[in-house]
Design goal:
157 residues, alpha/beta, four-stranded parallel β-sheet, two-stranded antiparallel sheet, 6 strands
Length: 157
């Protein structure tokens, strides 16, 4: 495999500022996601002075705010955190789909990494498991992704 160039992000030494967009809806879950993301950023050398938190009403509102932050040129990465829990109506599909589409679109249009930490679960129990109990903390996972992507984007030619 001599001569093959491999590019990979690291989990240390990320430069720049990080924004976290977190929904208030299902706050008992999203607060845990936020705490996991903050803890991970701190453990990887990102101090409070390089972190901005933006709170939005719900997951549907995450996309436009992520877009605005990516376009600002201020942030090395944006972390999107929310919880959409399936109910008895198709509302779940519209909210989850539009949130994911908008975050992906913002990343593609601006080149700023967007780490998608929005839970899309069938039950409250599943959301709780992913917000710091059995299945880890997806907010922490999103923060790790953001750090790695910042470093990867800087390493690419």
């Amino acid at each position: 495999m001599a001569g093959i160039k491999t590019f990979e992000g690291t989990l240390t030494g990320a430069e720049g500022e990080f924004a976290i967009v977190v929904s208030r809806f299902n706050g008992f879950i999203t607060d845990s996601l936020l705490n996991g993301a903050l803890d991970t950023l701190h453990r990887h050398g990102i101090d409070d002075g390089r972190i901005s938190i933006v709170r939005v009403p719900g997951a549907f509102e995450i996309g436009p705010v992520v877009q605005r932050l990516c376009q600002s040129g201020r942030y090395a990465a944006v972390i999107a955190l929310g919880a959409v829990i399936r109910g008895a109506t198709p509302h779940f599909d519209y909210v989850a789909g539009e949130c994911a589409r908008a975050c992906g679109s913002a990343a593609m249009q601006t080149g700023v990494p967007v780490a998608f930490g929005v839970l899309t679960t069938d039950t409250i129990e599943q959301a709780l498991e992913r917000a710091g109990t059995k299945a880890g903390n997806k907010g922490a996972d999103a923060a790790l992704t953001a750090i790695e992507m910042v470093n990867l984007m800087r390493a690419l030619p």
